[in-house]
């Protein structure tokens, strides 16, 4: 029902543009720092763990780079970053919309004859669907770079082997698969917390509760969707 | 003019509004009074379509609002201004942007015309120079006045005010009351004020409807309310010692 209202014809499309730019800045670029930090350490730890678990002399050293690349591109960047954003962005969205509800700002929009669901939620969905793929691509680069730093700063693998490994049998479809997941996750990250925020009843306590529910629900839906998409596309 | 006909509303089986019938006149400040939880805010929300009544109808100048489609309602809502209890200003927008918002959404004005209208509305509520301030940077009384400025930006035919004096000091309350009365007379709009502030009742109550337990119990004006024999209304009106002294004097 909410999504039906969200995707109705906007009251004035030109005003949505400004909101979308604002949301890209708020939801996307505002997460740039945390994504960079998480990705670099994620790539570094994957490299360290893979290297420490490969004892056999039959497995070539470049496997570490190969495994890091595959893990980062196929799973860690799209899914872990989506879960991080579900926490950061999702709680932000649910509490922002919930506060608008309890402070009657949503009622004020309705009184002005504006489709509040569309005006508030559509720019967030569009912004996330647009910016999240860029964030995930950035995370992929930084994650693989994190592994390179480990190769450079420690003796677990040489940089030559690592670089060879990350180039070994590279299939661009892996990136496509990751970006398909990212777009679906972006929709989940924005729409589910929006739902919980939009239907808040009560005060500050309920806004907090809606925020928690939004994050938990979107995280669970992301994990289930991840399984379904992987089954459909990769298997 | 707004006519409310046989409006009833229940929540979870509990009747909050029971067969309310009332007419609110144009160019007058019409007050809905009652104790907390009596159903005044629910009635107002039914009138503006934020809550759908279970039965009955609301007519804005003989147009049945309750039977209208979403698009038809939008047209009527462009003629409605509403001042909310907490102001309901958009936090992320400045005072100027808040007032300009309905103009941008519905008006076909140039930027210059919109700016002039914002200046006029702010001047009307004595808030010249507050353009660039954010809602968090101004007092509760100023927020209410910005709320009024936003409500009148589109030159509404109907003005709804939900507890405009709540949380305000007596001096600012009187200022807001006078502003509502002046705007009502000046633009000949139909104003409906939901309140339980007796100072407001005696100050601006040209027509007063008293709701008790979801039913209309009394109707009159500020002169007749002090002489009322209605027991429930008397308990509300003369609840304070000051009002009791005023009655006895």
Describe what is shown at a glance.
The complex is a heterodimer of chains A (235) and B (249). Chain A is mainly α and 235 residues long.
Structure description:
The complex is a heterodimer of chains A (about 240) and B (about 250). Chain A has one domain. Chain A has helices spanning about 1-5, 15-30, 30-55, 65-100, 105-110, 115-155, 160-165, 175-200, 205-235. The mean pLDDT of chain A is about 90. Chain A has about 240 residues and is mainly alpha-helical. Chain B has a domain at about 1-70 and about 190-249: Rossmann fold (3-Layer(aba) Sandwich). Helix content of chain B is about 40%, strand content about 25%. In chain B, the strands form two sheets. A six-stranded mixed beta sheet of chain B has the order 6-7-8-3-9-10, with helices on both faces. A four-stranded antiparallel beta sheet of chain B has the order 2-1-4-5, covered by helices on one side. The longest helix of chain B is centred in the last third of the chain and has 18 residues, at about 170-185. Classes of the chains: A mainly alpha (about 240), B alpha/beta (about 250). The interface of A and B includes residues 11 and 104 of A.
Q: Count of helices of chain A?
A: 9
Overall shape of chain A: it is elongated
Largest interface by Cβ-Cβ < 8 Å: A-B, 15 and 25 residues
The main β sheet of chain A shows up as: none
How would you sum up the global shape of chain B? globular
Report the sheet-strand fraction of chain B: 15-25%
List keywords for this structure.
heterodimer; A: mainly alpha; 9 helices; B: 249 residues; alpha/beta; Rossmann fold; 10 strands; 40% helix; 24% strand
List the helices and strands and how they pair.
The complex is a heterodimer of chains A (235) and B (249).
Chain A: H1 2-6, H2 13-28, H3 32-53, H4 63-102, H5 105-111, H6 116-153, H7 159-167, H8 173-198, H9 204-233
Helix pairs in contact in A: 2-6, 3-4, 3-6, 4-6, 4-7, 4-8, 4-9, 6-7, 6-8, 8-9
Chain B: E1 2-11, E2 14-24, E3 29-33, H1 40-48, E4 55-60, E5 63-64, H2 70-77, E6 80-83, H3 95-106, H4 111-124, H5 140-152, E7 158-162, H6 170-187, E8 190-195, H7 198-204, E9 207-212, E10 215-220, H8 222-225, H9 231-237, H10 241-248
Helix pairs in contact in B: 3-4, 3-5, 4-5, 5-6, 6-7
